[in-house]
Known about the structure:
243 residues, six-stranded mixed β-sheet, 9 helices
Amino acid sequence: MAEMASLWIVRHGESTANVAATAxxxxxxxxIDLTHRDADVPLSATGEEQARATGRWLAELPAARxxxxxxxxxxLRAVRTAELALDGTGIPASVDERLRDRELGILDGLTAHGVxxxxxxxxxxxxxxxxxxxxxxxxxxxxxxxxxxxALLGDLRRDHDGGRVLLFGHDAxxxxxxxxxxxxxxxxxxxxxxxxxIANCSVTGWHADDSGRLVPDVFNDVTHLHRQGATPTRExxxxxxxx
Length: 243
């Protein structure tokens, strides 16, 4: 099978919705105070700072390691992160809708408390089915997102055989890329989601080993933000974790 030389994914920088969601969950509110549809949520000032720091990290990578092409989620927070991070690097970018965030359907804009209060039957159904297979009405399950990512990976392997590819996307995509690239089980994937919060502008990556198979390099790494003097999102203060 054709394979890339390396694959990276950067989660978008902190967004205004990230800030609003943290405030709503902390206060016990049922609704997150959102003024944009999910696709149009912008970065916060901190998120823009994080994206620029990611760009400085990219510019400092040796030429033999630097990504050759970037593929970006169409959601504004990812597009803006990519614009700021790729500025001046010369790395060409394209948008692919398969990298969009997981769609939550009727649960969009609700806190965990809000789901329990407004849709108790859905909360019970999610508990019964499990996070991996549960699909909210009008939304996607994790397996739905995995299907579109599996198709994207097939195209990337075909179109960029031996190439170095950088993705800009969302937290669920980071977890699911590990599931797909590393062949994790449902149980292993769900354990990762319980143990880790994917940090804004964190880097996760894989490189091809001597057999040509992608193996993990780094997971959920924000050391570049610290090194570049950027402010990590408070709840996401994590460093590189071995995998």
